[in-house]
Design goal:
There is one protein chain. The protein is α/β, with parallel strands linked by helices. It has a single domain, classed as Rossmann fold. Helix content is 38%, strand content 16%. It has 6 helices and 5 strands; from the N terminus they run E-H-E-H-E-H-H-E-H-E-H. Strands 2-1-3-4-5 form a 5-stranded parallel sheet, sandwiched between helices. Helix 2 packs parallel to helix 3 and helix 3 crosses helix 4. It is globular.
């Protein structure tokens, strides 16, 4: 098995690295994800709550936004609502939901076009693959799909 802390997705050549926002209130998870992504050639900004995430999203254009749903000050659902109102195309193109919420809470996303929902704990290699695919969307390779309906 590959070591996710070691680069295995080559960083982009002849252009700036993809910019990512990690919106996660758990400092340990935020630090781990940030470290792995930086070591794989991504430029990373951090938000420790939903209000900070909304501020950063309003000021910057991110290639992907890794979004926890259960955060203080504004939760991930509120961040998604903000994007639905201000930039719905960014919601479909760039949101990777990272969550441990229950299925009943996750139903609030039914039909919303987020790029992918990943359940915690998630595999770091899978996260790297998902981020790389999401960032390729500008090249026509990424695929945004509505959030799955939960039974």
């Amino acid at each position: 098995m590959d070591d996710p802390l070691q680069p295995h997705h080559p960083p982009p050549t002849a252009r700036l690295p993809e910019r990512l926002l990690i919106a996660e209130d758990d400092e340990g998870v935020r630090t781990l994800i940030s470290t792995v992504l930086k070591r794989n050639g991504y430029a990373v900004d951090l938000a420790k709550n939903g209000a900070e995430a909304i501020e950063k999203i309003a000021l910057s254009d991110y290639d992907a936004i890794l979004l926890d749903l259960n955060m203080p000050m504004a939760n991930g659902f509120e961040v998604i609502s903000y994007l639905e109102l201000t930039a719905p195309e960014r919601l479909a193109e760039s949101i990777i939901v990272l969550t441990a919420v229950s299925n009943s809470e996750l139903r609030k996303l039914d039909g919303k076009p987020v790029f992918r929902i990943m359940r915690k704990p998630f595999d770091l290699d899978d996260l790297l693959t998902t981020v790389a695919t999401c960032c390729k969307r500008g090249d026509g390779d990424g695929r945004a799909t509505p959030a799955p309906r939960l039974q």
